[in-house]
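Record type: ASSEMBLY
Status: queued
Input:
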Amino acid sequence: MNNFEYKQATDAIDATDAVAASEDAMFIAGGTNLVDLWKYNLVHPKLLVDINHLHNHKHITELENGGLRLGALVTNADTAYHPLVEERYPLLSKAILAGASPQIRNMATNGGNLLQRTRCYYFYDPDVPCNKREPGSGCPAMEGYNRIHAILGASDQCIAVFPSDMCVALAALGAVVNVSGNNGERSIPFTDFHRLPGDAPDIDNHLHHGDLITSIDLPVRGFAQNYSYLKLRDRHSYAFALVSVATALELDGGIIRDARLALGGVAHKPWRMHEAESVLIGRTADEATFAAAAEVILADAKGFKYNNFKIELARRAIIRNGMMALNPETQLPGAQPSA
Amino acid sequence: MVGRPVSRLEGKLKVTGAARYAAEYDVPDLLYGYVVNSTITKGKITRIDVSAAKALNGVLEVITHENRPDVASVDLKYTDMDAPPGVVFKPLLDAEVKYNGQPLALVIAEDFETARYAATLVIIEYQEEPFETCLDHNLEKARKPEKGLATMLKPPPPPPTGNFEQAFKDSPVKVDSEFRHGTEHHNPIELFATTTVYEGEGKLTIYDKTQGTVNNQLFVANVFGLHYKDVRVLSPFVGGAFGAGLRPQYQLYLCVMASLFLKRNVRVVLERKQMYPFPHRPQSYQRLRFAADANGRLTALNHLAISEASQFEDYVETVAQWSHKLYPAPNTLFEYKLASLDLFTPLDMRAPGGVTALHAIECTMDELAYEASIDPLEFRLRNYAETDPVTGKPFTSKALRECYMRAAKQFGWEKRSPAPGSMTRGNKFVGYGMATGIWDAYQFPSRVEAMITQDGKLVLNNAVTDIGTGTLTVMTQVAADELGMPMENVTFNYGDSKKPFSMFQGGSSMTASTGVGIVVAVKALKKKLLKKAKDIDGSPFKNVSGEDVAFRDGSIFLRRSPSVSVSFQEIVAANGGRPVKTTNMGAPHVLKLRKYAKATHSAAFVEVEVDKELKMITVTRAITAVAAGTIINPKTARSQITGSMVWGISKALHEETILDEKLGKYMNQNLAEYHIPVHADINELDVIFADERDDLINELGVKGVGEIGLVAMPAAVANAVFHATGKRIRELPIHFDKLL
Ligand SMILES: Cc1cc2nc3c(=O)[nH]c(=O)nc-3n(C[C@H](O)[C@H](O)[C@H](O)COP(=O)(O)OP(=O)(O)OC[C@H]3O[C@@H](n4cnc5c(N)ncnc54)[C@H](O)[C@@H]3O)c2cc1C
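Status: finished
Output:
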């Protein structure tokens, strides 16, 4: 960990200007990921721009179109327990609460959650090769211990997965990310925010240096009647997903009128596929229907030595979670499987 | 007080943060050391450039193999009390790199942050050599371990009896199974740390995280050529160690070296990641072949165990022979081997060897019970050993049957339907599994100084640590009872190498060791007090003997007429105000005990639920019954057992250090990825203590409870998973996806 300068930003422009001006500047929000990366010598910011005092971005507000705006600096905990989120976007609330620990969620911010780095073991160890950390150095995960790695959308450069739970729900809900950058403000649909590794695995998303996430907009429809988030992992809490599923349905007497389906823990970004959702629409909400959607979304899945199980596990999880979405009230805390 | 659930005396200090740990002592003009670890697994340092680091403001020195001060050149000087046969590893000795993460330099700066940053500026170039780190791919290299001092506590397996191969062949019921365990690290929450206070020419006071103050005192004195009386090691609070503190660790060595080199006070704290190139539970491979006759009586036992060793030391565990301490069989064959790998030397980790072995043994017993179509508990009872099957000697006590019966009853074992997958709850399979546990009943010599001070109170001194087990509380209870005094008038000083000798705290031995030391010392103190009482002018005790008097509430009084008494305060006053004191050694009754076998026992019963499709495993409840002699403090003892039950669940389902054999290093060197159970993984746990009276084992009738709660658990969980799913997963931890 290196020495650095510290600056407290007063507003979004102040913050973006400060970071854009220097290659070695970084924002710090909750610090729950950044400080670890720093202590492991994976990042070396010389200027730290503290955005925790950007008061305009610390609120959750209703939008005129009936949606909801989540300030980038609202904590994950405050978001999950916000009455409007709980009432209108319970899928998001569940997904957030399935992640990390209460202490971390109390610090972690919504903006930071989108930008957390992968948990790939090889990425976190600066003494071994990693294409994501050092493009061109190689990927020991492919031949190594790849239990937690990708089965979808990986490249021959990188098989890391994006670890967020919150983002799986945001992808399913069709959120929009609002960004303030050097060239003004812009909005990015959630599914276009993160990118696949391709031949530039070091780049996680479509932001530019100095871009500040100011907020995340949720559309009007929150699927509050029929939704479920299921997270499968190596212990019952405080572990990243091996596979997670966000399912949101709009039902009409047992028939699916609209559907959202997104997977976490399987790819370099939250994995949502419209073709799989189309399979669901118009059909009876039952195991056979969810199995059909699973076939489509997993059609191109490819496993490695230690994570091959994820393909079958994801298939079963999609089916179970579809059924769980029919009875959201029976769901258990921590996104555990229920009947 | 003995038998009462007294709360920890130091509990408030710990929960309020007032307790000081090794890295927390305020010391003036302190320097901070930060370790630079090797990034390769094997080879040589070809260049080490510290100039950039040294040029940094606030950096005082960078010690490497090139400029380190002289240390002892004789290997023997490095041999701590727990050193296995071989040559102890010496940090910064030369340019050779023997394992990944090996400490190669110590940066010393005026503050921690500067030292840590400067460490990133040290440039090291290597010439790499090929290495081997995976046991499974090196099993053919396995060989007999070297013998040495450690062999005394961990004897090699006994010679074969009968004719195993023939008996195995001829037996109608048999099982042949292989078990594999990966590496585990102790991962105590408190980071390993040392604060060395330089007291002037050759004198040091050292606050160290250790399980053995005297062990580390002698190590430092020997290695750095100091007089042992000039080295004082203090370790009053230890935030967990689980065996990792049984030997001096590298932060101690480097911290002392820096302190002597710079003649300054120095602190070295390891980061979590720096505690992985460290002692650990070794990788192991086991093959068990057990056979029984048509009536379900064991006829043949074969246990082959192969463990990992380093290239420089033969760390051994007792693995292969445990089955025969539990079950009689006429034909036995036990083998234990090591394969040397390019890793640091393993070390005892809670129930070393025992928990490794018992997982394999008790899963094999379960399998055999199924082969013989006998209920697993009934199968154990049919093979119950009334005397030690190995030697034929009687046990000093053995209430294992009571453990089985009481735990089975409370658990509801009779409700179990034997067919795998036959019990369900909603969309979950329910599995019941059980297993037996056994562990040694060690006692080491321990010297205790006991004294009555001017205020008539009892003070005890002993070098033992309290690694969080409740030692302070339990020792105070024992002393209070022995002298008939309330606990608040007893002070037990510990965690200090200056106090009379104690072995390191390991092997579940301390209550027996220092506890007996206290009994012996307080008994002697009583004699001395009576003698001093007699010496008082006009003493009413002049012509009485020991049997005629009793000790209560700080006085001696005549049994016949209790109104005749003299207080300890008066005795000390008559002694010229000087404390009345005595120092005595408590030791095991080796000669008497030679005629007996001794062990603690346990029985664990576990219920799991396994999701029918997703296969996620939940341990919904577990009961462990323990037979460990007298339980001095049911509260702290229960904590030991529930804590080790959690550990057992961890070992069965969660815990693993991931080794990448191509890189030759551990990949999950942090507590986010090194999984241990969290609250959501732990449900109902219950503990039963069997009524086990043991008048033979020692003065207190105690056997120790630190490890016995762990040994049976992994097998009980694995057997429950089998009962739920019909799948035998013989590799730990059991990843739920193996059940898909
Ligand atoms: C042990 C552990 C377990 C965890 N488990 C889970 C889990 O199970 N599921 C899960 O989803 N997450 C988990 N997390 C991750 C956690 O959710 C993230 O660390 C957290 O959301 C990051 O938010 P932060 O505010 O702390 O970000 P920081 O650490 O402050 O920042 C992260 C990155 O984002 C940048 N950044 C932050 N805010 C902005 C902004 N507004 N605009 C532009 N850039 C910004 C920073 O510069 C930095 O690069 C875990 C974390 C830990 C440490």
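Annotation: Residues 309-326 of chain A form the longest helix (18 residues).
Annotation: The CA atoms of residues 121 and 155 of chain A lie 17 Å apart.
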